[in-house]
Design brief:
Layout: H1 5-16, E1 18-21, H2 27-43, H3 61-67, H4 70-80, E2 84-94, E3 102-105, E4 113-114, E5 119-124, E6 135-137, E7 149-151, E8 161-163, E9 173-174, E10 182-185, E11 191-193, E12 202-211, E13 215-216, E14 227-230
Antiparallel strand pairs: 1-10, 2-12, 2-14, 3-11, 4-13, 5-10, 5-12, 6-9, 6-11, 7-8
Amino acid sequence: MVITEVDRTLQDYDRDGYTIFRNVIGRDLIAEASEHVAWLQAKHPDRLGEDLATELVAGDPFWVRLVSDERLLDIAELFVGPDIALFASHYISKPPFSGMPVLWHQDGAYWPLEPMRVVTLWLAVDESRPENGCVRVIPGSHQEDLHALRQRDDIDNVLGSESAVTVDESKAVDLVLSPGDVEVHHPNILHASNANTSPRRRCGLTIRYIPTSTRITSEQQPFVSALLLRGAPGVNVYQPFPRYVDGEHMRFADAEKWT
């Protein structure tokens, strides 16, 4: 039997709870994503770079263009099947010298999904390394149940909480990524990132894809960032795709296709 690169990647994911795809998105689109972060921060000066999140997505043509990119959907399909919806998306852009940490947590502990069938694609917009606060994971921890959460207001951090469990950080793996790389992780894996104390920004875009058979159980229905991206609609109600309006939205390479 011939073992393909995709087979190896899926084996890595099953064993470790994460895997990495290199050079998925090209330089031009990544440059637009970087510009998009700056544009969002100028438009929403009350928001930190770590807080460019879900409620902004469905009304933003470039954001929807990015999360619906066929290369990303092809990766998502490997994990959730051919009928794909967006559940949520979030830029975490840690500014130089002051970017906040993300404490150890499991994504699934925060999400109103039934069943918890979902995959996160983490698209690197910047170089992501230990010195500027790259994602860290505990391989194999995706096999644990979801832990309870506890509030943490004694330290500035992105989520304001963490998993109520002791983490052996000697087992942590730093995920070193270049712009355009995509890291994929399981909703149960314990992961975190340190503060950015370097002179370089660290920005990544999280994209949470679900099969359309997974129900969004939030009382916000239709969920604010739920979008049907590929295949049959399944069990949820979705937001319409936004139309590009010159002067209202950030201009991007194929904006005319979104008018």
